[in-house]
Amino acid sequence: MIKRYILMFVCFMVAFGLFLPQEIGVAANGTLTIAENTVNVRKGPGLSYQLVKQVNKGEKFTIIKEQEDWIQIQLSAAKTGWVANWVVTKTTNGTTTNGLNNSNNKTAEANTDQLRVRTGPGTNFRIIGYLNKGQAVSVIDDNENWIKISAGFGDGWVTREYLDFNTKSTTSKDDNHNKSIGTGNITDTLNVRNEPSTTGRVIGKLEKGSSITIYSKKNGWVEIKYGNQRAWVSADYVQTGTKNKPANPSNGTIGIVTASTLSVRSDTTLNSNIIGSITKGQKFTILEEKNSWFKIEYKPGKIGWAAGWYFNTDRETTTELAKDSKVTILHNGTNIRKDPTVQSNVLLRANEGESFPISSVENDWYEIILPNGTKGFIAGWLVTNNGTGPGIDKQGAEAYLKSKTIVIDPGHGGIDTGATGAGGTLEKELTLRTAYLLSDKLRAAGANVFLTRSSDSFLPLPSRVRLASVHQSDAFISLHYDSNLDRSVRGMTGFYYHSYQKKLAEYVYNSTNAQTRLKSRGVRTGDFHVVRENQRQAVLMELGYLSNSAEEMTLTSGQFQENAATGLYNGLARYFKDQ
Ligand SMILES: [Zn+2]
User: Fold this and answer.
1) Which of the residues 19, 37, 428, 576 could staple to 412 if both were Cys, CB 3.0 to 4.6 A apart?
2) Pick the CATH number of 171-240 from 3.40.50.720, 2.30.30.40, 3.40.1350.10, 2.40.50.1070
């Protein structure tokens, strides 16, 4: 909702300023990110204290102080509360509220096989590689749904839920508690609960076939790791035992250590015991390979596992391409051709899911090895590339967003909370969440992105508009959530003021409305400062009604936030494409 009564604001600010508690302005002790869906914030440091508010996964707060297992956080300018430290991820020494900015030393590992790594934070971005379970990566950046990582084949983004973070604050304090006692597979879709009982709260679901690491067992329940936390599933649906892919003997391949020192471990995970150490330049015969780990004889008669991504192998040094690179077909009836052009003869048709080893890359085409041993070509845009081979660029939305200057304006902030939802959601917090997600997507596509505010701070409307003219922006997008006294009102609206802004408004609105499937209230003219006084292309999006309690639940979900950001992103790309 847009506040038009600026005078009222000023009065409010002045009045408020007199009553600000002492904590405000005290240097932050860092920030934290909520790691679970629907976390209770309480009046004091304990479960018995009254509930102040519920917050969601991905929301970030400034830390005021800590007391045993509880952390006091700044909820808003005048409001504080306490959260349990086992439901949050801490960023110490953080001076900004956006992400893991001090994550230089932060590492994480994939908790599933075949985890897709993409060029940007969204499923519409191209896949550049895969991570396997236990594979360690460094963390570069993050938002509530996506993590940017650095892996052997380059930097990319992966879904947050499939990474486990190797930081103290996210692991249990009890060391024994960290040791797994085995692995298992889920035999049917089942609920994940926070306690070993059917009365425990459901915190998620696991699909049939998911693999799990087991930490303990109790009364027919199995303790597992779910996201960043421990959780329980019924033992009836867990098939225990290691079900790793059969090891592929690697025919005496030699690996040369590329890390200055590298630990040798008892098993193929970073959690397993360190039993030795090897150094840069040492050569070993790879006895076995499993999940990107190499089994080696690191000392005469002593066998252990080392992370395969810290080795150069003769396989890779003889050819630029890793021999284990494969392409996987995306659609049924895909043509495999004799030569790398669409005019050449079709050798055979392949179906979705079939995969072929890559032997070389020629322009936008992969040369692949067919089952009969002969070679053929397949267009790079018809496949996903699995492995460490080079990717082929597809011209997606990125092409139209590259080098565009976009100003994102998260509505309200600081003392101006905007609308307050039926359940207490503050508009100013939600607009910032959406803005972070959108800006990460746009930046990944190569756009120049400016946020009018990137923290919970007050910014007058003219300053917001000024940013658009200072940067000569190609698009200015103001993000808001609506409110109405009639709590049955719901839906999304797009606003522009000048006729020259109509096209942008329609593109962005239509795409976002289609992606989120919120009730459509259409695109209209609206007399709002940030579009009216804006000489650039501008749109103000009211992304749904917080005053409607059902819609509020939708709007605050991670899924909606991701969809809204994707819709805004696609709308911008299509707008620039059709310019
Ligand atoms: Zn608003």
Assistant:
1) 428
2) 2.30.30.40
Q: How many angstroms does the Cα of residue 539 sit away from the middle of ligand 1?
A: 13
Map out the domains of the chain as residue ranges: 30-91, 107-168, 171-240, 257-313, 326-386, 398-577
The per-residue pLDDT for range 411-442, each reduced to its tens digit, is 999 999 999 999 899 999 999 999 999 999 99
- Ligand 1 midpoint to CA 543 (Å): 10
Q: What distance in Å separates the CA atoms of residue 255 and residue 316, rounded to the nearest whole number? A: 10
pTM of the full structure: 0.50
**Could you tell me which CATH class the domain 30-91 is placed in?**
mainly beta
What the block records as the tokens of 348 is 């055979």
CATH top-level class for 107-168?
Answer: mainly beta
Q: Cα separation of 509 and 542, whole Å? A: 10
Same topology between domain 30-91 and domain 398-577:
no
Q: Is 542 labeled as catalytic in the residue annotation?
A: yes
DSSP code for 273: P
How far apart (Å, rounded) are the C-alpha atoms in residues 316 and 527?
A: 62
- Look at residue 428 and give its three-state secondary structure: helix
Residue 214 above 50 pLDDT?
Answer: yes
**Residue for token pair 């003392």:** 415
Paired with 186 in beta bridges are: 238
Say which CATH architecture domain 398-577 belongs to: 3-Layer(aba) Sandwich (3.40)
Please give the pLDDT value at position 570: 92
The CA 470 to ligand 1 mean position distance, Å, reads 23
Tell me the C-alpha distance between 551 and 427, whole Å: 13
For 515, the enclosing helix (H) or strand (E) is helix 502-516
Q: How many CA atoms lie within 13 A of 471 on its CB side?
A: 22
**Residue labelled with tokens 């973070």:** 165
Q: Residue 492 in contact with residue 518, Cβ under 8 Å?
A: yes
Share of the chain above pLDDT 70, in %: 81
CATH topology of domain 257-313: SH3 type barrels. (2.30.30)
Most confident of 51-55, 100-104, 153-157, 452-456: 452-456
Q: Which of 183, 181, 147 is nearest to 165 (CA)?
A: 147
Residue with tokens 């996506």: 146
Q: How far away, in angstroms, is 317 Cα from ligand 1 center?
A: 57
Q: How is residue 278 written in tokens?
A: 């090897």
Nearest by Cα to 465 from 429, 427, 498: 498
Catalytic residue among 429, 542, 552, 562: 542
Q: Cα–chain-centroid distance for residue 226?
A: 16
What's the gap in Å between 276 CA and the centre of ligand 1?
59
Alpha carbons 282 and 165: distance in angstroms, whole number? 30
Fold classified for 326-386: SH3 type barrels. (2.30.30)
User: So what's the pLDDT on residue 526?
Assistant: 96
Nearest-angstrom CA–CA distance, 196 and 211:
19
Rounded to the nearest whole angstrom, what is the distance from the C-alpha of residue 483 to the centroid of ligand 1?
Answer: 8
For residue 506 the two structure tokens come to 């329609």
DSSP 169: G
